[in-house]
């Protein structure tokens, strides 16, 4: 592609001397330079605080880590101030750039991001400090760093293919980069090929494999790569990454963003101009550059789309909102008539009018009644507006929360447990949906009212006296005494609403934290119903609060009118009117500023909600065919399965894994070292993930031929750390079968050795929470819950690993009863010999492959058995 300097639209990476000691100029000067240079989108970044003394720049020698933390906090504040100040001239993004990567550094970085949650819009994931490389290093310091790393005195950098130290050094560098990406998932991969500037050849096979691994990982989770111009600043004649890595990134579907990496206003246009020329030239060729915006979430098209989606949410409430806007016009018109009316009255009475007469031939009593009626109409209209707006907001938020929650429960495990996390999803459910609803109703109403008020007020001010429009005087009406009583009532209602929100959040967090259990028991509809009930309760409370607040605002409006009537102390009516309009206009302009800020906040919140609503789960709906246990269940076979977790695409967990489980009555135990892939087998069986290649067959048919929900309904699971939901013991046991009778629940409890339940005062109606019972009791409740489903296949994942001897005995007795019943197939993942020995067949899993299988007695009797070696310590204890 050809990008001339004039078409340079965005840069995502710059620094200023105000907050970075080796840069120049203030942050505002950098912003001004970006505006003057024609940038449409510009990223303001600053380095994360450096916590180690050895990582400080020479200019920072006198500073403490606390000084640097305060400096970064000040940068965030100033960046957001400038973002708002120049919002009509440029889109400014506020980000941070990482530098050095160790486990402790990443912990501190995560804490920093949490402290500035919602204010740091993106992360540039750069790796500078690694293996002794300082930030602005040259060839000499690079060679010294390699030498130090290899503990050798000389390093033959000119012969890298034969240089094992250089290979090890670069591998360490790239491994640090992968660790950063796995933990933080930075939106931009910065300085990707930094070492390329100092190594003549990066085609070393072990190094190149890691480069490709890192690129694949970044592309997989959606990161973009920066084309960084900092090399020009350092005297090099080419940007980085190098051309070979650019080709690889492009081949793997990667996307680039332009980066001036300027360190002062003078470099802003200079560096990006050089970068544009290089992109346009033949050196790098054609590749995909995000031109209109530096990051996908700030593109104008996305913002416009989000704005359309945002207002589409209000469509079901259009009648209520139109009525509210009509009432708003009425109340605003009444409000804006007050200054003019009182101005004329002041003029009339100040000129010695006869008592009992008015210029329109009505008595003062009649005029007072008319004014009271006018104020009452305004107050009633305002009260109606508040009721309609807040009720509409409550309904919009309720619908949005239900839809968002339903979408969250349908998402794949990878997204819920790794990419987003339950906390992020709950934040979208709670805070973001409220902000969206408020921006569509309350904030929009305030914006319209501000426009109407300002327009009418300015017109009347010029009508009254253009020469006096510069006078500013605020008139603040006294607060009504009744506000105190209403305030207390509103506070109680608000507290109940917040309690309802807390209950709603608790249910959502509970289910999302236990999403494996929810999906395994196909209980998403039930969880949606529980959540919807709480949402409806919060909606009802919010509407009651709206009505109470409406009465308050209406009464305040009446009081304001009465208060203004009593202010006839200034002899010049027109001046009084003008000053009152000045106050109205000033307040309206302030409200407009607040409205714009709130609308932008609503857009940001809506984007997070829409991302979740529109996200398609990775575990796709491949079929609508229901799995029928009686008709379809038979042998289960893993056939040459390869699998790696999406968050670690280069690290294969299963490599050609093959295993069979016969029909009902068969029991198989999988054993192996930690990390060998045992639990991954069960995750694949439940379709929490899908294999990278290979098949999982049931009766010779791929499990993808059946719907996910019907397949999971045929499987029961007892996890290592079972989750109990807030409710009764009976409700927890019947979680996967809510229509079960009490006799069914009790029978399942007996089979699971839940004798302790009968000893409780309320037995199965005893209220419990997540941690109300002991580990052994929770395990037995989990077994009863799984048995009540009458599963064709029962999976036990380390069900006794964390239990004491007595609890383990009781759980194993329940397991023995299940195995003897021959009513279900059983897949056991375990470390404990007491559990493993009960299985009919044992499969040894090592490095993702089956290395041995057989019956327990056969394997124990074989001195060369891999199983015997694994269980040596436990066998010796027998």
From TrEMBL:
Primary site of residence: membrane
Transmembrane parts of this sequence: 320-342, 362-381
Keyword field: Amino-acid biosynthesis, ATP-binding, Histidine biosynthesis, Membrane, Nucleotide-binding, Transmembrane, Transmembrane helix
Family matches, as SMART domains: AAA (SM00382)
Pfam families: ABC_membrane, ABC_tran, PHP
GO terms under biological process: L-histidine biosynthetic process; oligopeptide export from mitochondrion
GO CC annotation: mitochondrial inner membrane
Compartments, record wording: Membrane
Membrane topology: Multi-pass membrane protein
Reaction equation(s) it catalyzes: L-histidinol phosphate + H2O = L-histidinol + phosphate
Residues covered by the ABC transporter domain: 636-872
Pathway of action: Amino-acid biosynthesis; L-histidine biosynthesis; L-histidine from 5-phospho-alpha-D-ribose 1-diphosphate: step 8/9
Entry's EC annotation: 3.1.3.15
PANTHER family: ATP-BINDING CASSETTE SUB-FAMILY B MEMBER 10, MITOCHONDRIAL, ATP-DEPENDENT PERMEASE MDL1, MITOCHONDRIAL
Protein name: histidinol-phosphatase
Organism: Rhizoctonia solani
């Amino acid at each position: 592609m050809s990008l001339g300097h004039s078409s340079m639209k965005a840069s995502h990476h710059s620094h200023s001397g105000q907050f970075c000691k080796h840069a120049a100029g203030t942050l505002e000067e950098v912003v001004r330079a970006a505006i003057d240079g024609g940038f449409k989108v510009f990223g303001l970044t600053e380095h994360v605080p450096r916590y180690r003394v050895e990582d400080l720049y020479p200019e920072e020698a006198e500073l403490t880590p606390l000084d640097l933390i305060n400096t970064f906090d000040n940068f965030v504040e100033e960046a957001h101030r400038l973002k708002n100040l120049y919002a009509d001239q440029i889109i400014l993004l506020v980000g941070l750039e990482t530098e050095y990567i160790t486990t402790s550094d990443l912990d501190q970085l995560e804490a920093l991001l949490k402290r500035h949650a919602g204010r740091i819009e993106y992360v540039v994931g750069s790796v500078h400090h690694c293996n002794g490389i300082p930030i602005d290093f040259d060839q000499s310091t690079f060679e010294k760093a390699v030498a130090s790393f290899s503990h050798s005195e000389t390093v033959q950098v000119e012969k890298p293919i034969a240089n094992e130290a250089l290979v090890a050094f670069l591998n360490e560098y790239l491994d640090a980069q992968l660790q950063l990406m796995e933990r933080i998932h930075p939106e931009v991969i910065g300085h990707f090929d930094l070492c390329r500037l100092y190594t003549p050849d990066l085609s070393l096979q072990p190094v190149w494999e890691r480069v490709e691994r890192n690129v694949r990982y970044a592309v997989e989770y959606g990161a973009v790569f920066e084309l960084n111009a900092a090399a020009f600043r350092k005297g090099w004649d080419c940007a980085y990454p190098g051309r070979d890595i650019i080709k690889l990134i492009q081949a793997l579907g990667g996307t680039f963003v332009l980066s001036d990496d300027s360190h002062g206003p003078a470099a802003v246009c200079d560096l990006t101009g050089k970068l544009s020329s290089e992109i346009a030239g033949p050196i790098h060729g054609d590749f995909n550059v995000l031109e209109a915006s530096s990051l996908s979430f700030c593109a104008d098209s996305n913002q416009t789309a989000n704005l359309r989606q945002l207002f589409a949410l209000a469509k079901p409430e259009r009648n209520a909102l139109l009525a509210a806007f009509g009432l708003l016009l009425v109340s605003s018109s009444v409000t804006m008539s007050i200054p003019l009316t009182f101005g004329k009255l002041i003029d009339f009475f100040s000129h010695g009018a006869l008592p009992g007469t008015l210029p329109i031939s009505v008595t003062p009593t009649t005029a007072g009644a008319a004014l009271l009626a006018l104020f009452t109409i305004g107050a009633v209209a305002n009260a109606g507006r508040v009721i309609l707006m807040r009720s509409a907001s409550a309904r919009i938020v309720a619908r949005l929360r239900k839809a968002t929650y339903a979408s969250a429960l349908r998402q794949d495990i990878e997204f819920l447990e790794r990419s987003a996390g339950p906390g992020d999803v709950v934040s979208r459910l709670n805070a973001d949906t409220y902000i969206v609803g408020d921006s569509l109703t309350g904030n929009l109403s305030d914006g319209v009212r501000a426009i109407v008020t300002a327009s009418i007020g300015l017109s009347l001010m010029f009508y009254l006296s253009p020469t006096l429009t510069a006078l500013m005087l605020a008139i603040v009406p006294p607060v009504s005494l009744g506000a105190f009583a209403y305030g207390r009532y509103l506070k109680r209602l608000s507290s109940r609403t917040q309690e309802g929100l807390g209950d709603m959040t608790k249910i959502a967090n509970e289910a999302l934290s236990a999403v494996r259990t929810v999906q395994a028991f196909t209980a998403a509809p039930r969880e949606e119903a529980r959540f919807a009930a709480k949402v409806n309760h919060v909606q009802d409370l919010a509407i009651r609060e709206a009505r109470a607040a409406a009465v308050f605002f209406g009464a305040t409006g009446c009081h304001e009118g009465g208060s203004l009537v009593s202010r006839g102390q200034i002899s010049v009516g027109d001046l009084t009117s003008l000053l009152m309009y000045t106050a109205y206009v000033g307040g309206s302009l302030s409200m407009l500023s607040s409205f714009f800020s709130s609308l932008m906040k609503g857009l940001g919140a809506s984007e997070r909600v829409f991302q979740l609503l529109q996200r398609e789960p990775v575990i796709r709906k491949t079929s609508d065919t229901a799995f029928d246990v009686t008709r379809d269940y038979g042998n289960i076979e893993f056939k040459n399965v390869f699998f790696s977790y999406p968050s670690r695409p280069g690290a294969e967990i299963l490599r050609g894994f093959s295993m069979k489980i016969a029909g009902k009555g068969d029991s198989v135990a999988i054993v192996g070292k930690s990390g060998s892939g045992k639990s991954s087998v069960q995750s694949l069986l439940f379709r929490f993930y899908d294999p990278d290649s290979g098949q999982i067959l049931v009766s010779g048919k791929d499990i993808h031929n059946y719907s996910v929900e019907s397949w999971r309904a045929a499987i029961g699971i007892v996890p290592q750390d079972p989750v109990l939901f807030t409710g009764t013991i009976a409700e927890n046991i019947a979680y996967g079968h809510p229509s079960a009778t009490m006799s069914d629940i009790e029978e399942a409890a007996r089979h699971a050795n839940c004798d302790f339940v009968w000893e409780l005062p309320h037995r199965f109606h005893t209220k419990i929470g997540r941690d109300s019972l002991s580990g052994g009791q929770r395990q037995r409740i989990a077994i009863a819950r799984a048995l009540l489903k009458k599963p064709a296949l029962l999976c036990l994942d380390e069900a006794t690993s964390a239990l004491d001897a007595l609890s383990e005995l009781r759980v194993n007795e329940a397991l023995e009863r299940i195995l003897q019943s021959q009513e279900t197939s059983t897949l056991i993942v375990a470390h404990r010999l007491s559990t493993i020995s009960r299985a009919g067949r044992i499969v040894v899993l090592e490095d993702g492959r089956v290395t041995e299988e057989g019956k327990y007695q056969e394997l124990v009797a074989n001195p060369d058995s891999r199983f015997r070696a694994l269980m040596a310590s436990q066998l010796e204890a027998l």
